[in-house]
Amino acid sequence: MKIKLYDSYSRSLREFEPIKGNRARIYACGPTVYDYAHIGNLRTYIFEDTLRRTLEFFGYEVTHVVNITDVGHLTSDADTGEDKIEQGAKKAGKTAWEIALLYTEAFKQDLVHLNILQPDIWCRATDHIAEQISAIRAIEKKGFAYITTDGVYFDTSKLENYGYLARLDVAGLNAGQRVDIGEKRNTTDFALWKFSRKDAARQMEWDSPWARGFPGWHIECSAMAVKYLGEMFDIHCGGKDHITVHHCNEIAQAQVCYGTQLANFWLHGYFLETDQAKMSKSDGEFLRLASLVERGHDPLSYRYLCLTAHYRGDLKFTWQSLNGAETALNRLRAAVHAWGEPDNPDDQYLQQFRHEVYNDLNTPKALAVIWNLVKSNLAPARKKATILECDKILGFDLANWRPVVLEIPDTVKTLMALRTQARQARNWVEADKFREQIAELGYDIEDSAKGAVLRKKPLP
Ligand code: AMP
Ligand code: ZN
User: Which CATH fold would you assign to the domain 4-269?
Assistant: First the structure.
């Protein structure tokens, strides 16, 4: 059995085979660190973590590179507007360097809380200015760059198949172009290097063969990916919003610099959506992982929720669905914990699980296999061994989970005792009154054959 992945470049499901030996080389576009990551961004990193874990589960050695965009990402994808980092710094009254560091650390913490494996290599755009300048020079030497009053641009009209990844109709875009493109020759041309403006001082800027300034957003990814993974590596991934601009531009740069399409597979995670239609960091108001924790949720419940949907479909976030995911995860944890010591995994269930994840990371179906296994009549030690094996991909850290012994306040204990008495006297109205009082203090009661159990409620 091979792993099959949906490659956005060929728009097809293809069997994965590393280019070189047994090593799978992955590059994932990292965060732009001008603010905290929102839970939508984190969905993409959960998908990429699932991909990496699946490749490792299969037996490949993985090199996983994630970049940190700490310069050059402008507020508009059309290469106009302000640098997001410089703008974020002004808003917070800190330096651009402080802002970048603060949100890089916050992002890494989020990954730890979600049990996302650390990449083998983190690389920051500002640490790779020389590599970016030399890639831009190569593009210029080959005649694909031109200079305007505000920067060095890539001439997309010179590349025959520019935009193939997104199946862009470049001629149509140019003909139908309505916004002012300034000195750009074509709508799809993009900045390789931007010059610092004389009238607005920048904190992050460097000398270059053209003028003092800073790199465009797209050149950092292709330059760093090549430095760490080579001119043609196995998998490049990111969120689906990167298909139309960022990844088309990375490919264009690679075609000119190295004569490759950069990666053999291009994978894209679909979006998490909230009630506000689209989740966007630049809109100011958004949900962070900390927002879920503040409401009493476990970050791994969010991981579970993400795995209930296929990565190639948008996922609507609701508090109700998060509660549902949390209940399911807690049931799974409690079951696994209660099964005692594991022995050997069951081949048949393992095979079914593999079949689903190797089929373009079909985690919803893989979870269904897990629940069938939980309900099956296999011996507990075997169930446990199988699930712990599958957890290498699911990443719920089931082996280390222990039930939390709740410190229940005395008032709640007293109310529980009164409720039990009322129930024994079959006084249901009275018993319900106590349940409500207990709920107001933040606890849910779950009645089961073994008696009543208290659970701390997530905040509404
Ligand atoms: P950014 O910090 O904006 O550069 O984005 C970091 C990653 O999150 C990129 O791979 C984006 O494609 C991805 N992303 C942005 N918004 C969402 C969303 N609502 N749902 C899933 N992924 C997203
Ligand atoms: Zn990128």
Answer: Rossmann fold (3.40.50)
